[in-house]
Design goal:
There is one protein chain. About 55% of the residues lie in helices and about 15% in strands. The chain is α+β, with helices and mostly antiparallel strands. Strand 1 and strand 2 form a beta hairpin. It is found in: Cytoplasm.
Length: about 190
C-alpha cells in the first residue's frame, strides 16, 4: 500500500497559483497615481434595479496616464454612475461631458502612498496565509498516508516537496509585494 501514495502536487500548485492570481487582482485595484480601468472594478452602480459593475453600463477607457473615461451607454444612468463613483471612496471627482464621465486621477501625497503600501502588505499577507493553508492540506494528506503505512523516507520526501513548493510561492508573493510597494512610492 505504501508504494501507491502519490501526492497531487499539481493540485497544490494550482491552488497556490490561485492565491497568487487573487493577489495580482487585488494589487491591480490599488491606485498608484496612474490611471487604470481595473481601479473601477469594485464600484457598483444601481442600474435597472440591480447592483451592476461599471464596465457593464458603459465603456471604460484610459486615454491618458492620469485620466479614465467612462462612455455610459444609457443617458439615464449617467447620474447614477457619477454618484456611485463619488460614493466609492476612490477619492476621484468625476466630471460630466454629455454621456462621457471623465475621471482625472490626482497625484498621490506621501501619506496616502504610505497607507497604500500598508494595504498592499495586508493583501500579500492574506496570500501568504492562503498558500500556507494549502501547504497544511498537503501535509495532512502525507500524515494520513503515513498512518496508512507510508515509509518514513517517503514521508520526508513528500514533506520536502510540499515545503519547497510553498517556499517558492511565498517568495513570489514577497517579490510581487516589493514591486508593488516600489510602484506606489514612485513619485
Amino acid at each position: 500500500m505504501s508504494d501507491e501514495f502519490e501526492l497531487d502536487t499539481d493540485d497544490l500548485k494550482r491552488r497556490m497559483d490561485g492565491a497568487m492570481a487573487n493577489l495580482r487582482t487585488e494589487f491591480a485595484s490599488l491606485r498608484t497615481g496612474r490611471a487604470s480601468a481595473s481601479m473601477l472594478e469594485p464600484v457598483m452602480v444601481d442600474a435597472y434595479g440591480a447592483m451592476t459593475p461599471i464596465n457593464q453600463v458603459g465603456t471604460v477607457n484610459v486615454p491618458e496616464p492620469r485620466m479614465v473615461t467612462i462612455n455610459v451607454w444609457d443617458k439615464g444612468l449617467v447620474g447614477k454612475v457619477e454618484k456611485a463613483i463619488r460614493e466609492s471612496g476612490l477619492g476621484i471627482n468625476p466630471q460630466l461631458n454629455g454621456t462621457i464621465i471623465m475621471l482625472p486621477i490626482p497625484e498621490l501625497n506621501e501619506e496616502r502612498r504610505r497607507e497604500l503600501t500598508k494595504v498592499a502588505g495586508q493583501y500579500a499577507e492574506h496570500a501568504r496565509v492562503s498558500i500556507r493553508n494549502v501547504r497544511r492540506d498537503g501535509m495532512d494528506q502525507i500524515k494520513k498516508a503515513k498512518t496508512d503505512g507510508m515509509s518514513e523516507d517517503d514521508q520526508k520526501f513528500w514533506e520536502a516537496e510540499v515545503q519547497e513548493l510553498t517556499d517558492k510561492m511565498i517568495k513570489h508573493v514577497d517579490e510581487a509585494l516589493e514591486t508593488k510597494q516600489a510602484e506606489i512610492m514612485q513619485v
